[in-house]
């Protein structure tokens, strides 16, 4: 894995995290968020930044490795396709925070979360096709997104 590629994927993941954080941080302090009914399976607030920091790091490292491996194999078209899939994934990732926290649109947030889950499965599948251990390392991301979709869905149901 090349340092430049890692810097690009880490920069992209950090940008998604930062953009999502701009919507999330102020909203979790509001009366609106505190009044939302939340399911018993919602993790404590401290779990989210820990989980997401680990996942963003994983996304950056696995993606850089995948892109460089494809380039090294002469599969530039597949490397570009992976890069586009990563970009879409990170847009969905940051977008969920804006839909849920900033716009307070719980139903549409479930749709964005489900799309993020599908995108995350696709990203892990693409990585695994290049390097099985890398794909396995990225498997935590779609699992977390699946959980986040279930959590978003339940919050929506509880607060209709």
TrEMBL record:
It holds the Pfam family TspO_MBR. It is found in: Membrane. Its main location: membrane. One of its GO terms (cellular component) is membrane. InterPro entries: TspO/MBR-related_sf (IPR038330), TspO_MBR (IPR004307). GO terms for biological process: tetrapyrrole metabolic process. Residues 1-18 form the signal peptide. Keywords: Membrane, Signal, Transmembrane, Transmembrane helix. The chain crosses the membrane at residues 136-156. Belongs to the TspO/BZRP family. This is Tryptophan-rich sensory protein.
């Amino acid at each position: 894995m090349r340092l430049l590629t890692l810097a690009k994927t880490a920069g992209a993941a950090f940008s998604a995290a930062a953009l999502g954080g701009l919507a999330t941080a102020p909203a979790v302090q509001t009366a609106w968020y505190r009044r939302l009914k939340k399911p018993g399976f919602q993790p404590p607030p401290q779990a989210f930044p820990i989980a997401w920091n680990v996942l963003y790091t994983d996304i950056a490292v696995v993606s850089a490795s995948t892109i460089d491996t494809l380039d090294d194999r002469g599969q530039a078209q597949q490397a570009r396709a992976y890069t586009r899939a990563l970009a879409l994934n990170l847009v969905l990732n940051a977008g969920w925070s804006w839909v849920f926290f900033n716009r307070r649109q719980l139903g549409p947030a479930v749709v964005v979360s489900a799309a993020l889950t599908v995108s995350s499965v696709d990203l892990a599948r693409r990585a695994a096709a290049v390097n099985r251990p890398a794909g396995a390392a990225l498997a935590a991301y779609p699992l977390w997104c699946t959980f986040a979709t279930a959590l978003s869905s339940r919050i929506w149901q509880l607060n209709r």
